[in-house]
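Page 42, continued from yesterday. The earlier attempt failed because a stray header line got pasted into the input along with the sequence. Redoing it now with the clean sequence only.
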Amino acid sequence: MFNQKSKSDNLPAAPGSGSASLIAAGTTLKGDITSNGDIRIDGTLQGNIYCTAKVVIGANGVVEGDISGQQADIMGKVKGTLHVKELLQLKGNSFVSGNIHAAKLQIEPTANFNGQCHMTETIPSVNGNSRQGADKKVDTPVAA
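This time it went through. C-alpha cells are written below.
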C-alpha cells in the first residue's frame, strides 16, 4: 500500500553528483575552498576557489582571490585571476579585476572587466595529439 523507501533514499546527493555548495549572503569566509561539485558564492570569500565543476558568483557575491574551475558564471565582484577550462560568463553588473584564462568567454554589455584575457583552445592535430590554439598557423595565398 505504501511505497517502501529506505531512509538512505532521502539523503542528499554526494558531492559532484548534482549537488552544490553554497556560501550564503551575509557570510564571510577567509581561506581557500576546494570542491569537486558546483559551488555558489553569495557572500564574501577572501581566498582562492579550486573547483572541478561550475563556479557561480552571485550578484551580491565578492571573491578576493583566484578562481579555478571547469565553468564559471560571474554576477558579482571578483578581484583575482580566473582560470576556466570551458565557458566563462560575465553577467549583469559583474566586476572582474584581474586576468582571465578561458577557452570561451561571454561578456554582457553591462559587465565590467579590467585585466588581460588569454583564450586557449585545445586543437586536435593530425597525429591525434592535441596542441594549444596559440600554435595555430593560417597560411593565406599570395596573389601573383
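Notes: The longest strand covers residues 82-90.
Reminder to self: strip header lines before submitting.
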